[in-house]
C-alpha cells in the first residue's frame, strides 16, 4: 500500500460522508416528498445543497472505482466504513444531534473492523487482466505497517 | 404485513447492491490499475475502458435497482431501520459473494472485520 492508495481510500470515505450529509441537509430544507408527487424529487437537484451533494457522490463513485481497480472488495468495503464514523461526528459537531452511548459503541466496533482489515494485504488474488507487478502477496503477514 | 414488506425491501436492497458491488469490482479488476493506466494512456483511455466494460454497465444497473428498492423500502419503514439493516447485511453478503464469485481469500481477519463493521452499523441505528 502506497500513500497515494491510502489517499484514495480516504477520498472514498470523505466524499461519501460529506455527500450524504449535504443531501440530507438539502432534502430537509425541501421537506418530505409525498408519494403522489414523486416527480418533485427530480426538481430537488435545483437545491444547491442537493446539487453539491451529488457532485460529492460523483467524487465518491470515481474514487470507489479507482480503489476497486487495485484492491479486493472485501478490503475496500470495511476500510471505507469509517464514513459512518465521520457521519456520526458530523451529526454531533456540525448538526448538533445527540449521539447516544450505543452509537458510540457502534463507532468503536466499526473502527476496530477498519483497523483489522487495513493491517492485511489489499489484494489476495490475481486480477483477471493486467500486469503481474501489482499483485500483492497472497499471504497476510500482519506486519506490513 | 407492513413488517414483511419492509424485510422484502431490505432483502431486495441487499441482493441488488451485493450483485452491483461484485460486478463493479470484477469490472475494475478487468480494467486494471486506474493510476497506471492513466499514466500510460491518459484519462480518456481510462474512462473509455470503464464505460465499455459490460460488467461495469450491469453493475451500475444493479446499483440503480438497489437505490430504487431503498426508496420503496423507505416508504414502508423508517430510514433508521431500513438503512442500517440493509447496510449491515450487505457487508456480510459481500464477504460471502466476494469469496464465491471473485475468488477473494476471505480469511479470518476479513470475516472479523466484516462482522465488526456490520455489528457497528447495526448499533448506530439502535
Mean pLDDT of chain A: 79
How many E strands of chain B?
A: 0
- Beta-strand share of residues of chain A: under 5%
Biggest interface, chains and residue tallies: A-B, 45 and 43 residues
In N-to-C order, the SSE pattern of chain B is HHHHHH
Radius of gyration of chain B: 17 Å
Question: Can you walk through the features of this model?
Answer:
The complex is a heterodimer of chains A (145) and B (126). By secondary structure, chain A is mainly alpha-helical. Chain A has 6 helices and no strands. Chain A has helices spanning 3-30, 40-43, 48-70, 73-79, 82-93, 101-118. Chain A is globular, with a radius of gyration of 18 Å. Residues 130-145 of chain A have low confidence and may be disordered. With 126 residues, chain B is mostly helical. The longest helix of chain B is centred in the first third of the chain and has 30 residues, at 2-31. Chain B starts with a helix and ends with a helix. The model of chain B has no long low-confidence stretch (mean pLDDT 88). At the A-B interface, helix 3, helix 4 and helix 6 of A face helix 1, helix 2, helix 5 and helix 6 of B.
Strand-helix topology:
The complex is a heterodimer of chains A (145) and B (126).
Chain A: H1 3-30, H2 40-43, H3 48-70, H4 73-79, H5 82-93, H6 101-118
Helix pairs in contact in A: 1-3, 1-5, 5-6
Chain B: H1 2-31, H2 34-41, H3 43-51, H4 54-76, H5 79-101, H6 108-125
Helix pairs in contact in B: 1-4, 1-5, 2-3, 5-6
Descriptive tags:
heterodimer, A: 145 residues, mainly alpha, 63% helix, B: 126 residues
